[in-house]
Fold:
Amino acid sequence: MILTSDYHTHTVYSHGKGSILDNARSAQEVGLKEIGISDHGFSHPAFGLRANKVPKMKEECKLATEQTGVKVLMGIESNLIGTDGKVDLKPSRYDDFDVFLVGFHKFVLFKPKTIFSLFIPDLFHTYIGKPAKWVIKENTKAFVNAIKNNPIDVITHLNYYCFADVSEVAKVATDYGTYIELNAKKTHFTDQEIDALLKTDVRFVINSDAHAPKRVGEISLVEKLVERTNFPLDRIDNIDGRLPKMRFKAFKERG
Ligand SMILES: [Zn+2]
Ligand SMILES: [Zn+2]
Structure:
């Protein structure tokens, strides 16, 4: 299994350690065709992207592409902020981005109601044990609505600190052409959840979630998972020379 591209990499513009060019250089060294710079969405209080930095980032992506030959895409790891499926990338900003990732993150500025339905119960159940059914139901609703209402390319680290019914999320993701990420920074699916996901027709991408340039393209955690679960490689769209069909790009081209 050889990684073709890596859409989830952080830089100093959120809480990564390197520059956009550093990430691109690392990608070039490991032979990737393209990468996404996917710093945290605007509503993350400590690490969120600052809107006034976006033009400079886009320029740096362009220069890094020219200097390395790796296609460097301007992405975002937007935050899920409401059970109604609200995320913190608004259509008015779509022109600034090439890749649209969405994930659940602790400590973002949730909508008032959501702090009680998503954030606190998830935090509680993460430390106490298996989440209650109603929590899973609310989380599932949030992801399902997010996929339905936004042209999301990839859901990042599903079931990491925020437990949803993965089959339900995967079914909607399949219908709308959104990928489910296999994240190489953290273990976020049990083997049973992988089984459940594979019973749907959803498609996957592998991402490093690198917070340091040297980790760009580093996916050994997922390689182990693939081996252990006998994961069918033809379900993964960014390996062995293949590039994924991104929903956000297609959405923008349709106008
Ligand atoms: Zn994340
Ligand atoms: Zn991330």
In short: DSSP finds eight helices and seven strands in the chain. The pocket of zinc ion (ligand 2) is lined by residues 8, 10, 77, 209 (CB under 6 Å). The longest helix spans residues 112-128.
